[in-house]
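Backbone-to-sequence.
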């Protein structure tokens, strides 16, 4: 009788394996991008032309974008001629207070939160399928309280993650 329950468990396992692999395949497809016949991409340094310039922002943003492409596609990053190019400029880096309405309408609005916003203008050129080309501005922000000093690099990293996801989805997520 113990043999029968083992066989039942074993056949149940064989039944679940195809379902597991199906979910694995679906998960992989949803996380990656559709690059079609593309094999190479050129991502030159994004120049920082924002009125407020942060020294390492060009490098950190460009590296974040290159990492996103490298980890989520099979594209090889090259310099010069490539099947496609992602290029652009960092056009905005602003810090502004966010205004919260006061509980009593007779009191002026108050703010104890600030917002760091980064804007990037991106041009995507697909040399194999020019219908996929675009030029678009992307902007993301993070709110924070207090002094930006020790938080700035962490806020920039979080915004870079959001921006690179938006750019990646625009260029490669064709689903």
């Amino acid at each position: 009788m113990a043999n029968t329950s083992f066989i039942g468990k074993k056949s149940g396992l064989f039944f679940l394996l195809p379902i597991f692999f199906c979910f694995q395949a679906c998960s992989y497809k949803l996380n990656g991008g559709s690059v079609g016949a593309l094999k190479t991409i050129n991502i030159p340094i994004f120049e920082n032309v924002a009125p407020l310039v942060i020294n390492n922002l060009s490098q950190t943003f460009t590296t974040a974008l290159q990492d996103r492409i490298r980890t989520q596609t099979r594209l090889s990053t090259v310099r010069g001629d490539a099947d496609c190019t992602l290029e652009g400029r960092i056009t905005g880096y602003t810090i502004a207070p966010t205004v919260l309405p006061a509980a009593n309408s007779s009191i002026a609005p108050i703010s104890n939160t600030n917002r760091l916003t980064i804007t990037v203008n991106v041009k995507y050129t697909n040399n194999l399928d020019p219908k996929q080309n675009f030029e678009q501005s992307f902007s993301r922000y993070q709110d924070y309280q207090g002094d930006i000093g020790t938080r700035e690099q962490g806020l920039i990293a979080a915004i870079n993650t959001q921006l690179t996801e938006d750019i990646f989805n625009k260029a490669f997520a064709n689903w």
